[in-house]
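Page 47, continued from p. 46.
Same chain as before, 137 aa.
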Amino acid sequence: MPRAADRTPGPTPPASDRRARGAAVEAAARKHLLAAGLRDVAANANYRFGELDLVMLDGAVLVFVEVRYRRDDRYGGGAASVDARKRRKLVLAAQSFLAAHPRLADGACRFDVVEADGDPAAPRLNWLRDAFRADDP
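Result:
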């Protein structure tokens, strides 16, 4: 059994390193989704309740994409970190986006998660379509 010290994460990298890593992973996720046929609508859309990493169209369906990076999956994949609190924030941000873009508000929408791990410059990606619903608890 690992000792407590073995489970303690290392030092937190500076915010600038986290931002650069996040930007690289989001760019890789965006490229992956574009190659799968989705179309760009917005990126890093900030609202009072939170940020939408990517907003895309999959056919006529508006897709709100949360990109989650983990260096490794030792503590669960990226989707595991999208807990009820984070889902609520994403739903509220999506509602704010739809209020600001009423022409997009009439169609179907969904929430996807792209899990990423490994090297941020060339991450392994796992796209979870319809990862959760706005009315999930």
